Structures are given as structure tokens and as C-alpha cells.
Amino acid sequence: MISPASPTVGDKVPADIRIVCIKSTTLRVDQSILTGESVSVIKHTDAVPDMRAVNQDKKNMLFSGTNISSGKAIGIAVSTGVATEIGKIRDQMAATEQEKTPLQAKMDEFGEQLSKVISLICVAVWAINIGHFNDPVHGGSWIRGAVYYFKIAVALAVAAIPEGLPAVITTCLALGTRRMAKKNAIVRSLPSVETLGCTSVICSDKTGTLTTNQMCVTKMFIIKSADGENVNLDAFDISGSKYTPEGEVSQGGSKINCSGYDGLVELATICALCNDSSLDYNEVKT
Description:
The chain has 286 residues and is α+β, with helices and mostly antiparallel strands. It has 7 helices and 11 strands.
């Protein structure tokens, strides 16, 4: 069944869509979530001759989960759900077996060695006391003596197992996570703290991996005065982050009234007229 779709600027693409017609001058798509490209990609309707082309080269396709940066298009949905490119990545991640960290591997090795040593000691303790199986204290019964010393060997094995070791290791990792949280570093997996303990250099990826991938204005400049080639600028600081409508405009650390500056009013007017984006804000939603 053919399903037509008409994504426009600001929309998140709901499926893998083959572009049929572009209803704007250009169509730009932010597909960093899929391909890792930090800049938006220009799309077109021309066919891609290479059937083995990777997703980055499929300029006539809109992929599920990506965002329309500018423009409007009409297309046909060719894949939905887990059949999309982003769905295939999700299936591959779900099928990937989680590898053990060095700490987990060492703990498994320690557990195996400890079990073997304890087993040998228990057998040795039981074998050493074979001559006491017929002692009068056991009623002269060899079987009762064997069972008695077997219980002693089992009790020795239970006492030798460090039952508090997992709790101690978890506590140490939790303390490491707490220290990193104070440095504004959030750890999703406790075992990763052990790996970071031997890390000296961290090479971070591009925007969107360690950040929110939402660029925001932090400074504005307007012309204060101009005399020939000499131009004086007024600089303003803008607080707030991401796309939340929160923040203030200040100059020299003091909050200002933007309506008192003609340059700021004109700059805001230009920003409002030269884009077709919209911001949906719900004051009740937390």
C-alpha cells in the first residue's frame, strides 16, 4: 500500500520516505541522529544510480527520526517501524551481546579460582578425618562420622566464600559515580566507572553526542555609532539554553529593556521574519 507524506519544516520524519516533489526552493534535513553529520543535508528528487549507496549518499530519501530543517516536500513512505534504517540500527543494538568489563572478567576469574581452592580444602579436610569416622563420639558408626565431617567441610566452604564482596564492589563504584556526578558527569552504567579509572585522555565526538545538538545564541551585537570606517558596537549577553523560552538580555551584567534599543528591535524583527519555524510552549507542562 502506497502512503503519501508531506513533511514540512520542523517536522520529524515518521518513516523512510522517497521524495517525489519539493515544494520549496531547497529542502534541508538534519539527519545527525542517523548518520552523525553535524550540518543539515540538501535533498533532491533525482534518482540515485548506485544501488549500493550508503545512507549519506541517498539524497532523494528522508529517513525516519530525522528533522526537516527547512523546506517542504511530498513523498511516498517506503518503510515504517523496524523496517526503517533507524529501526535496523535498533535491532542490531538489541542483538549485540554486552561484553564484560575488565573488572567483571577479573571477578569471574577470581570466583572460579576461589571455588576450586575451597573445594580442594574441603575435600582435604574430609579426607584427613577419615580415621576418626569410627570414633565413639559418633556411636562407632562409620557413616555417621563421614556425614559429620562432611557437614564440617561444607560449613568451612560457606564460611570461606566472601559474601560481602559484591556489595563492597558496588559501593566503591557508586562512590565513584557520585564523585563524577559532582563534576557534572552522568554515568549510566556502574561498571564503566572502573574503565574510566585508567583513562587519561577522552576524545569526544561532534555536536549531538555529548551535547543536546541545539545551538543557541549567547551574544548579540548592534551598531552603536558609525563614523566613516570607525564603527562602535554594543554587545549584549543572552542567558538561557536549548529551545526553552527562558532567559534574559543583559549588558555589562545588568538586565536591560530590549525595547529601548532600536537596533535590538530591528534585529528581533529580522529574525522573526526570515524564518518559518514555530515554537510550541506549554506553561503547564513540566
